[in-house]
């Protein structure tokens, strides 16, 4: 019987990230579909809580543990997952596409003489054989791929599977790894505070800001300071993910008044990102096609615009509030604050 090895590293607080739990669901259903054994390999300073949090997945647990495996150092991450892979000789290795494993897993494929495919959007067993799915051309086309080479090393992107939920008490076989030869020393990890990090892929709501926030309003004046405060308040309370139109993030290059915490990383659309959130609210954004194309994975779409004939009104959102976003969001902030 072949083995599917699922690997994950713990986060700063010893838990597993959402994408790690999603990847476990995908690995488990692939193992079921292929009638393969599921092996679970965990890496971290202390993996007991993480192992217990997923104990019900039915896999055989292995762990590489110790303070030297707390931080994402390529050489120790690679040494750890190589040891785990050698322990259970898997046909397939699957890990979450975190920044740590996006770096380390290609290295693992080289060391094992296998092949790697990254940023997958899905996995399934077809006639007992593994088939991977991946988006191409900025997520406009989804391709399916198979490979004959083994081991096949895979990373799964976030938001592509349901997070595994099933705690219990796990029995973990500890695998020892000698990293005394690793010269890179990590001085510590600084996690970004929730308030500094406004791009939150796991948030319930995507809150999009458009150029209207910096345009002259009914009184003939611009109110960028009020806009900043209003947006910040809303994000602070709701912990929504912040997105923007291209026009707004481009304003800094054009010398206009800017929303200080927006960067090009926030841009949603054809030349920006296509985030996945259950809900989206666009404010002061016209809803032009190159922007709205980035909303294709947002399930429920709402927009606020003073213009009842804006792009959102052309069948691009579920609910359009025709009104002044400054006033509406001020009221919303009062209600939720
Ligand atoms: C090749 C190409 C690629 C592109 N890629 C992208 C992309 O990736 N992402 C992207 O966003 N755009 C992209 N664009 C640009 C896109 O076509 C639009 O120009 C852009 O999305 C417009 O941004 P906006 O809606 O914020 O600004 P505007 O078009 O200026 O709209 C501002 C809106 O704010 C409203 N408004 C003003 N004040 C208020 C108020 N008080 N309350 C409520 N509403 C108010 C106005 O009615 C207006 O509808 C691309 C364009 C091209 C040609």
Description:
This is Electron transfer flavoprotein alpha/beta-subunit. The chain has 337 residues and is of the alpha/beta class. The chain folds into two domains: 3-174, Rossmann fold; 205-336, TPP-binding domain (Rossmann fold). Helices cover 26% and strands 24% of the residues. The protein has a seven-stranded parallel beta sheet, sandwiched between helices. It has a five-stranded parallel beta sheet with strand order 12-11-13-14-15. Helix 3 crosses helix 4 (99-112) and helix 5 packs parallel to helix 8 (325-336). The structure holds flavin-adenine dinucleotide (FAD).
Q: Name the average pLDDT.
A: 95
What is the CATH topology of the largest domain?
Rossmann fold
Share of helix among residues? 25-40%
Cα-to-Cα separation, first versus last residue: 56 Å
Radius of gyration, in Å, reads 23 Å
Strand content: 15-25%
Which ligands are bound?
flavin-adenine dinucleotide
In the CATH hierarchy, the architecture of the largest domain is: 3-Layer(aba) Sandwich
CATH class of the largest domain: Alpha Beta
Counting structural domains, the number is: 2
By DSSP (H or I, 4+ residues per run), the number of helices equals 8
Q: What is the SS-derived class?
A: alpha/beta
Low-confidence stretches are none
> What is the count of β-strands?
15
Instruction: Report the CATH superfamily of the largest domain.
Output: HUPs
As laid out across the biggest beta sheet, the strand order is 5-9-4-1-2-3-10
The 3D shape can be described as elongated
> What's the order of the H and E elements?
EHEHEHEHEEEEEEEHEHEHEEH
Quaternary: single chain
Q: What does the largest sheet look like?
A: 7 strands, parallel
Protein name: Electron transfer flavoprotein alpha/beta-subunit
Keywords: Electron transport, Transport
